[in-house]
Amino acid sequence: MAGAAVLRRSARRIYRHLAAAPAFSRSVLQQPKRLLSSQSSPEHGARGAVSGSELALYPPERVRNFSIIAHVDHGKSTLADRLLELTGTIQKGHGQPQYLDKLQVERERGITVKAQTATMFYRHVSASQDSDTPKYLLNLIDTPGHVDFSYEVSRSLAACQGALLVVDAAQGVQAQTIANFYLAFESNLSIIPVINKIDQPTADPDNVKDQLKRLFDIDPSEALLTSAKTGQGLEQVLPAVIERIPSPPGKCDAPVRMLLLDSYYDEYKGVICHVAIVDGALRKGDKIASAATGRAYEVLDVGIMHPELKPTGVLYTGQVGYVISGMRSTKEARIGDTLHQAKSTVEPLPGFKPAKHMVFSGLYPADGSDFEALSHAIEKLTCNDASVSITKETSNALGMGFRCGFLGLLHMDVFHQRLEQEYGAQVISTIPTVPYIFEYGDGSKVQVENPAALASNPGKRVAACWEPTVIATIIIPSEYVGPVIMLCSERRGEQLEYTFIDAQRALLKYQLPLKEIIVDFYNELKGITSGYATFDYEDSEYQQSDLVKMDILLNGQPVDAMATIVHNQKAQRVGKELVEKLKKFIERQMFEITIQAAIGSKVIARETLSAMRKNVLAKCYGGDITRKKKLLEKQKEGKKRMKRVGSVDIPQEAFHELLKVSNSK
Amino acid sequence: MLRLAFPLVSHLPRTKPAAVRPRPPLARRYASSASTSASSFSPPPSPLLPPPLPPASAYVHLPFCRKRCHYCDFPIVALGSSSAPSPGGGEAAEDPRIVDYVQLLLREVSATRPVSDDGVPLETVFFGGGTPSLVPPRLVATILDALRARFGLSACPEVSIEMDPGTFDAARLRELVGVGVNRVSLGVQAFQEDLLRACGRAHGVKEVHEAVGIVTACEGLQNWSMDLISSLPNQTQEMWEESLRCTVDARPTHVSVYDLQIEQGTKFGQMYSPGVFPLPSDTESANFYKIASKRLSEAGYNHYEISSYCKPGYECKHNLTYWQNRPFYAFGLGSASYINGIRYSRPRRTKEYAEWVQKLEDGTWCHESRSSDMKDMALDVVMLSLRTAWGLDLQSFSKSFGKSLALSLCNTFKPFVESGLVIAMDMDRRALPHIDFELDLQNEDDFGSRVAFIRLSDPDGFLLSNELISLAFGIISP
């Protein structure tokens, strides 16, 4: 899912922020409350305690672990809600829609950022054995959908044996459908195509079946037709899960070994890990160890998510649930790690990787004095999002702040939004950048996560520069192919594929420098395709590029927070645009201001902001000086909010605005 | 930072010789056109006097207008065009609204307790509006009588009244002078028919010339001010030059030049945004300001305050009260007083004002507005004194608010002394080269050995006064 539509939603989100500031404080205030109430809230389908002996009734062959994957808005969350209701896990009409998306940012954007699991019990009337209706234990593993989290997705999928591939019956296959399909396919999952929203007047399930056949070689007869909204066709879904998805393959008698899917920090319970038991059984009181860190823990509590924490004291092979083991920070709970019986050597499960940070930006308190508050907020948020890298940095313009590394754009965006929504932090972020590699004539190499840290005049020859790239998939109605090709080539893209997925729609694949898409690529793409384009990307390798550092100078003083790395051929254009933008957003001051973009000591763009002409209040009417004084006080406060470099005051908006330029035409 | 217990009133040169000097002789009226002398602020400073506690000034608000001008956001009462006063203003023509209001105002005057019992009389009275010239002279007299009875009037007080062209004739003005008015502030605003109409003024150019004729011919009235507005919609440089020429030709003793402010809630506020056509651009309107400064200086006027010019000795003493942060009474709708260190603005609506007067009489009103603290006081002093050509007296500022604060202020202004927006002066009010100024700032002990005053330059510093003063605000109240 996400990449595309996620970004589309960010505009909506901004309006919401403007219109509904209270929503903000509400979320901050109510978050802990919800956590509290969720532990034993009766409306969430509390079935009483599920005992360990009950779980023993579900050997691996009675367990199915599956995930739902879809392009954003194709109905994944609604389908999940329906399945939870159908199995009595939650009660219909109780609890909030999009049950598994717990974060405000997930609900607003319709995306999943954190993996969630839910255990359901389902009595299956098998077609073949009409006498026996055994009960099955079904684990729905809700995964993040976006490429930023593709590692997390791959770990979640690794705990599944099958996936429901949900496709909107009217919109058909979109960019993230393709990305998700391949992730599931590469994880060897059984895929059940679900063509959803068939109640729509424009639904064309046959066309979608054709697309599935053409793109994924899926037999049209395998597709289930549903409407999660009206309930039509839903009765086929769980039987298909049981019949078409294999049971988990683990060894029941082996020492316990489990995959860590995701973790949360709970103020009261500490770190809660979601795990899938691959081999053996896990009991309360067991000693377990992490393969990644070697640290050992005692299992303090273990249970299933039904749909909230339900202690069972045990989890058996193939089952999915939670473990609380006295970990103090989610940094100890690395996604994809193998937890195993302590003091035994086990083969770690494959695929574990440390987080890879692809997008970096500086985060600074909007109000310079608030560094401590921001620091506190970041610390708390990283308790729940260990995948962000944080290092302190100082800027001449913005003061003390943090250099943050993110998995990708969406991750960065979500991090910002959570900082604001859940912790009330007001931040200025610098132009996002990617990890470039510069190699010098003397053979030394540096990875550049902050352009300001790169010497403008290094005193030695730059031998080569590399930048990360992505493979982007774009699906568009065919009439937009021309402009999209033009956009991609402006962004230094290289075409890899150009095919038609049906009579109206084209699929384009491009290799693009990551830097070229991190700022405004998607907005532009949406703009030139009347909103029809869907877009997704995956990381690709580094490529050698002709890169230069561009400084922005105000009255000769470089503004470190505005430094950026650009492609040599685009430097002139980007520089010109940046200085023009700055000229617009920096207010006239009592002296002339020159705004320059420079590469090394060579100025490539320049604007002059002439001195302010007048700012005078002519009259103190009838001795009433209070109004005038208020005005001057306001003016003073305005100055206080400015960031200052040398003698030049820079309004915060200038920093926000610069984020919008860096790449566009 | 604020070391001394600060007297509630200003430490600024409170009494200028001009303020106690008798009216300048008639012969002097135009005598000084050549005196565009070194200091634009003609009277030399007098030594600091002990803080004078009781106010010696009173502002009286007379809110009536025929109609509201398009730029105006004052507390006014529009009477409508039918109530143009009959020349001579007999009893029969008196509008009951005016009579009732004056009654109310008189009640306020008598319910106001003088600050001191030892009878410091009023040195200045200012009838502002609205259009005070719409109020029958008989009623103006009753107000002056009430003020005299309550607070006392000095031997030769300055009694100013704002008058609009078209609202008075020679007889009426004579009557006003007869009851004690001795200074007129004539609201001309422009000399172009189109501009007057566009502003929603209730008079035309013909009335302007008539009014000027009446004022200049009036015996016993030597002191009058012409009020102009620059940066009006569609105003061109030629028009502005013409207005200034007409002004100089009319030979007022005082000129007030107001740069149009677009206020929210006014008709102009709905129609225009500052700096956008048909309003002149910032550059043009800055230019208008500079032209006024140039033309009026050439004609012998001192630019003694951001928007005020006068022939030597003809400063508006009442307004000097404001700029020197001295206390003043105020009476009437929406008016603001400054008594015992407390600024208070009266209700802007007639009904609320009437209720307020009632409470004042009953003794049940006590104001919520807190007395200003030292910081506020310092802000006021800086804000007001930097409006004047006299500038900020660093010595007395240091005395009241501490040397280090004065030094910080000077340090903040350092680049602007260098660029010429701010002028540093020695005891003799000679401008200091910025090198000398900077030398003075090297350490606190030396500070003040050379520099004694800072002021904003004319016209460039004045034009950026808000910026410069708000910089100072940032130092005083970070």
From TrEMBL, chain B:
Residues 17-41 have a biased composition (Low complexity). Residues 50-299 form the Radical SAM core domain. GO terms for biological process: porphyrin-containing compound biosynthetic process. SUPFAM superfamilies: Radical SAM enzymes (SSF102114). InterPro entries: Coproporphyrinogen-III_oxidase, Elp3/MiaA/NifB-like_rSAM, HemN_C, HemW-like, rSAM, rSAM_sf. It comes from the Eukaryota. This is Radical S-adenosyl methionine domain-containing protein 1, mitochondrial. GO terms for cellular component: cytoplasm. May be a heme chaperone, appears to bind heme. Homologous bacterial proteins do not have oxygen-independent coproporphyrinogen-III oxidase activity. Binds 1 [4Fe-4S] cluster. The cluster is coordinated with 3 cysteines and an exchangeable S-adenosyl-L-methionine. Residues 16-47 are annotated as: Disordered. Belongs to the anaerobic coproporphyrinogen-III oxidase family. HemW subfamily. It holds the Pfam family Radical_SAM. GO terms for molecular function: 4 iron, 4 sulfur cluster binding; coproporphyrinogen oxidase activity. SMART domains: Elp3. It comes from Sorghum bicolor (Sorghum).
